[in-house]
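Handoff note, outgoing to incoming analyst
You'll be picking up this chain. Sequence as last confirmed:
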Amino acid sequence: MNLLKNRLREFKLSGIYNSVEERIAYANEKSLSYTEFLELLLEDEENNRRGNSYKKRYSKAKIPYCKTLEEFDFSFQPSIDKRLINDCATCQFINDKRNIVFIGNPGTGKTHLSIGIAIKALAKGYKVLFTSVSEMLQSLHFSKADNSYYQKLRYYLLPDLLIMDELGFKRLPNYSADDFFEVISKRYENGSIIISTNKSFEQWMDIFSDSVLPSAIIDRIAHHCTVIKINGQSYRTKNLKKKGGDA
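Most recent structure output, in case you need it:
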């Protein structure tokens, strides 16, 4: 057995390595055929590799916290069409290279929904990256100092789904419009984007100092896009009101 397990380790078959002793005992007990036994071992290896792949992709996704769609309180946000969210959860929009834009006030669940869809995408084998808009633009700006700009740009272009959180919470600096446009234009019809923002498209002109690029940015994002507007109250405000009511 030790020799067999050493060979499995050499061939990097860790899924079979971890289960081979139990599978042998099970096969003897059930009088499995060689084919059935081999199928079980291959299934163990496949499940192990799938699990490892998910863990690696989840780590690289930089999701700030785990929030699933099943945890979302749709009853508190009746303006959201749950069927539309369920459709997004199929991740067909990623195959179609479409975008999603969540528009709503702070605390209404935009980030929760974005992360929930991201987790669904990871479970289906997609590569995902989560970033705040300000962090992404600052990272791109700083990369110009050491000539790593195009390497950093590829970092935001390679994932199947790029989630850009918190657009519009503060006015972006002058240099940022070009970098933002670069990401949007290169992902256009090549990769999906989810944007969460507290500003309607009409108000995006106020976010960027540049007066021309916002129109080009909106044009590319909105061309293949599902826009989900959330008109409800903040979850955080709800909790504060509960505490105030109890007092």
